[in-house]
Each structure stands twice: as C-alpha cells, then as structure tokens.
Design brief:
Number of helices: 4
CATH architecture: 3 Solenoid
Structural class: alpha/beta
Shape: globular
Order of helices and strands: HHHEEEEEEEEEHEEEEEEEEE
Strand order of the largest sheet: 1-4-7-12-15-17-18
CATH superfamily: Hexapeptide repeat proteins
Largest sheet: 7 strands, mixed
Strand content: 15-25%
Number of domains: 1
Helix content: 10-25%
Radius of gyration: 17 Å
Number of strands: 18
Distance between the termini: 46 Å
Oligomer: single chain
Amino acid sequence: MSDWDKVLAGGPLDSQSEEIAGDRIRGQALLARLNASAAGDQALRQQICAELFGQCPQSCWISTPFTCEFGRNIHIGEQTFFNFNVTILDVGEVHIGSHVLLAPNVQIYTATHDMDYLARRNWTAYNKPVRIGDDCWIGGGAIICPGVTIGPRSIIGAGAVVTRDIPADSVAVGNPARVIRTLSPDEPRDQALLS
C-alpha cells in the first residue's frame, strides 16, 4: 500500500514521506509553469494541466493564477471553467463534474487537522474528499469545506461558506451556506444571486 493509498483511505498525511514530498515538489513545479504560461498558448497549458492533474479534458479552461497543493488528487469533467485565483487544497480527492463554473477566488479544501492542539503541533493533516456535481455554478469567493458534496445543477452564491452537503438543484447562500431555494432542472437560474 502506497503512502497515498493510506492517506486517501483516511490515514494521516505524512509530509516527510518521500512519495508525498516528491508529489508536492512536482505539483508546485508544474503549477509554476502553468501560471507563467501565456493565456493564448492553449496547447501548452493543456499539456501542463494534463501532467498536473493526471488528465484534463481539452474542453476545460483553467484561468491563471491557479493554486493547488499536489494536483494529482483533482479530477475534472468536460467543459469545466476555473476563473482567476481558484485555490484547491487537494490532500484528498476533489471531483469536479462536467459543465461546472468556478468564479474568481473560489476555494476548495479537503485538508483538515486534529481538534487537539497538541496533536496539531506536528502539522499532521487528514483528508475529507469534496465532490461537485455536473452543471454547478460556484459564485465568487465561495469556500467549499472538507467533506462537502454539492449535488448536480446547484448554485452556490458569492461568498458562501459551504460546511454541509448541498442537494441537487439547490440555491445555497450565506455563512454557513443554507439552501434558500430548490429549482426544477428545467427552471432558468437567476443570475443576480451571484453578482
């Protein structure tokens, strides 16, 4: 069992592990290349994203600057768009569906720590995976906390802090985010919610 297998099964992240430290260095080097690349050089950016994430559909767009820790634990569906300054802490897996829009400054966290302050002194991290379903729209500055699942076709309002699962076809706003409306899959979405 690899060190990553242990982490993704719920064990602690060993930052001193050769495998994990190597993946962090690799991820940060690829991230630096991506962020330094010209916006118009889509072929190069696509190639870097495919290396960073292990795969990246050609129909996706990752605006820069973009920040992540490893890259290897991020899985992205077709025609998904990351706007500027998206940050993903991918100690655990992040599954982002197809046709998802992430507005500027969206933050997605899978890393969590022990509640005991003495246990935190060694910086041990654990993971709680995040899942964002197809056709979601995540508003600017929203924070998706560890362990959250957002159901398909949902809208998360700008500045929301999502601490719990959000059902499909929901509009959630606030801190902590709460569902204020349920939409039928065919109902038009109100753009004013994310302005």
